[in-house]
């Protein structure tokens, strides 16, 4: 029993120590700091870098296929039953017309050899070298697109967290004011100066505020976790945001961005579409290159050894060397037009990609106009909602005074409160929309500032 208790104690200690190995990390980021961290640690960004590394290795693999190749080998054969042939017996002093069985060769045979080969000319190899550069460029472009998507994703997630934080602060303030008003109204009701309906109306409004507050608090936790995933950090780590929603919104009010001319060549999606067109063009060149001859050369070196006993590693074993030089020329002459058909298919695919590139250009111009319009609208909505919020606050304040003095009904006061709460949420949402719509516009224009 004492031994069992000791084992349990050791196991518990080990598990406790293991749990302490992964301590919580603490982070504090502004929006730009969060974006910089995500560009390095986001899971998609990490794999995008690996794709580039793999593409570089693929490029070298293609290059190496046209460089000298050396292969060596050892072949061993055990002829446990030698093949026999029939020869005239008179060759060995026998009677004419008779035949005897003769076994040629030795029981053990070993061959060591090395081959040096070199491609001299192959049109498809030249095209493959060009394709490997395009292949690498594709993943470099894909990495850039991943960066723009991460930048937009982090911006949206960062804004959602700030929206949740500000919403909670506003709701808590509303709750505090509403609770005080409700308490005062209940005292007035107890004194018989107002009807019970006034109290009940405020209780309904307070219950609604409490429900929204609880829901927003839960959404804040989800928003934080989504941002942590975008940043590439553990969801159990501590995260603090140093930017404020209002200051971040002001810094994103830049209508000069919509006045610049859109250059489709700066858009990463267009560059990827262009890269796709280059790939189709190279496939067309590849099919055409297959009509050209190919030329290669090789040099072979080797040694043979024969023995009836396995003694190849003895000093007196005799090895017979050989060497040769070979050149191979292959000239395509006629393929019953199969090669021509493949070439025409590749040409059609290339022409289709050119049409798709033109379509992508037009689609991107349309997306730019839409993103610019949405950003301009978000700025207008921000200014409008800010003005509406000021009006709603004044109206609610006047209605509260009237309600307290008995000059206004509970219905009018509750309507003013609902109008104020809606104006508050619209104002907060308009700030987030300014940030997000600008991020979307920057993504299309590839403008990082």
Describe the structure in your own words.
By secondary structure, the chain is of the alpha+beta class. The chain folds into 2 domains: 24-66 and 122-292 and 334-445, Outer membrane efflux proteins (OEP); 68-121 and 296-331. It is 64% helix and 15% strand. The chain contains 9 helices and 8 strands. The protein has helices spanning 2-21, 31-41, 43-64, 123-190, 196-231, 245-251, 268-289, 338-404, 410-445; strands at 26-29, 69-78, 84-88, 99-103, 108-121, 238-241, 294-307, 320-330. The strands form 3 sheets. It has a 4-stranded antiparallel beta sheet, with no helix packed on it. It is elongated. The two termini are 69 Å apart. Mean pLDDT is 89; it is low at 1-20.
Describe the structure concisely for a colleague:
With 449 residues, the chain is of the alpha+beta class. 64% of the residues lie in helices and 15% in strands. It has helices spanning 2-21, 31-41, 43-64, 123-190, 196-231, 245-251, 268-289, 338-404, 410-445; strands spanning 26-29, 69-78, 84-88, 99-103, 108-121, 238-241, 294-307, 320-330.
**How is the main sheet built?**
4 strands, antiparallel
As for the number of domains, it is 2
Query: Gap between N and C termini, in Å?
Result: 69 Å
Helix content: 55-70%
CATH architecture of the largest domain: Up-down Bundle
Q: How many β-strands, per DSSP?
A: 8
Shape: elongated
